[in-house]
Amino acid sequence: MSEDAIPLAGVIGHPIAHSRSPALHGHWLRRYGIDGHYIPMDVNREHLETVLQTLPKMGFVGVNVTIPHKERALALADVVTDRAALIGASNTLIFRKDGKLLADNTDGYGFIENLKQGAPNWRGPDGPAIVLGAGGASRAVLSALIEAGVPEIFLANRTKARAEALKDEFGAKVKVIDWVQVSNVLPDAALLANTTSLGMTGAAEMRLPLDNLTSKTVVTDIVYTPLRTPLLDAAEMAGCTTVDGLGMLLHQAAPGFERWFGQRPDVDDALRAAVLAA
Ligand code: ATR
C-alpha cells in the first residue's frame, strides 16, 4: 500500500449484520474528519485464513475480529501481544508493514477503562472482586482485574469445572465459589462483575440473592442489551455505583482505531448515542 492510500479497516465475524463496530468506528471517522473506511465482513470459518492473507494486499491496515473467529485469529497470527496470549483470543488484528500479522486483545482493557470512567473511585487494590461467568468474556475480565491489582477474585459459574479450569490458569488469586455462595462474599466485595449472558434480552433471568449487597460495591455488567439490566437496577436500588456494558464495547475499540487511523479517539456521550441509534 502506498503512503497516501486511504486506510481501510473493518470487522470480521459470522454473522456480522448486528455488529455495532461499523457505527462506532464510522462515528469516529466522521468526527475526526479522517479519510478512511471501516467495513463489516461476513466470513465463515473456512475462509478466515485466506481473507486475512488477502486484506492487507487490498489496503487494509487491520481488522477487529468477533464471534466465532477470536481464538482462530490468535492461532493464525505471527506475533501475539502478552494480553492476547493470556486471554487466549484476539479481537484486534494489525497488518504490519513488514507483512506480519499482529494479534492483540483489547477486551480486558475495554473492561477496565469502562470501570475507570463509570466508577472513578474504584481502584483494583480496594478489595475482592466477584466475577460471574467463566466463558471467553470472563477470561478477559479476569486478566484485566489481576493486572489492575485486585487482591482476590471470587469466581462463580453454573458449570463449576469451567471456573476451576480458569483458576488453574490464572492462579491463586482466583477462588472458585458456588453460585449460592456469592451472597456470603458480597459484604466484602469492592466489585461485582457479570460476564454471563444472564439478563440479556431473550436470555434467562439472573437469579442471584442480592440481600447482602451494600452501596460500597461497584456493580458492572458486560451485557448492554438492555443497557440497564435487572442486575444493575437491583444494584442501583442498593445505592451502588453501577457501570453498564456498552462502555466496554466502546473502549475496546479505541486502541485499534488509534493504531489504524492515527488518532486517539474519545469515548463520550456522542459516541454512546451514535452506537445506540445504530
Ligand atoms: P462469552 O464468550 O460471552 O463469555 P461463553 O463462553 O458462551 O460466552 O460463556 C457464557 C457464560 O454465561 C458462561 O459462564 C455460561 O455458564 P456455563 O459455563 O455454565 O455455560 C454463562 N451462562 C449462559 N447461560 C447461562 C444460564 N442460563 N445460567 C447460568 N449461566 C449461564
TrEMBL record:
Q: Cite the EC number.
A: 1.1.1.25
Q: Which SUPFAM superfamilies match?
A: Aminoacid dehydrogenase-like, N-terminal domain, NAD(P)-binding Rossmann-fold domains
Q: Name one Pfam family in it.
A: Shikimate_DH
Name the GO cellular-component terms: cytosol
Residue span, Shikimate dehydrogenase substrate binding N-terminal domain: 11-93
Catalysed reactions, semicolon-separated? shikimate + NADP(+) = 3-dehydroshikimate + NADPH + H(+)
Q: Which residues form the SDH C-terminal domain?
A: 245-273
Active site per database record: K70 (proton acceptor)
- First-tier enzyme category under EC: oxidoreductase
Q: Which residues bind NADP(+)?
A: D82, G133, A134, G135, G136, A137, N157, R158, T159, K160, A161, R162, I222, G245
InterPro entries (UniProt xref): Aminoacid_DH-like_N_sf (IPR046346), NAD(P)-bd_dom_sf (IPR036291), SDH_C (IPR041121), Shikimate_DH (IPR011342), Shikimate_DH-bd_N (IPR013708), Shikimate_DH_fam (IPR022893), Shikm_DH/Glu-tRNA_Rdtase (IPR006151)
The record's subunit annotation is:
Homodimer.
PANTHER family, alphabetized: BIFUNCTIONAL 3-DEHYDROQUINATE DEHYDRATASE_SHIKIMATE DEHYDROGENASE, CHLOROPLASTIC (PTHR21089:SF1), SHIKIMATE DEHYDROGENASE (PTHR21089)
The name this protein carries in UniProt is Shikimate dehydrogenase (NADP(+))
List the source organism.
Pseudoruegeria aquimaris
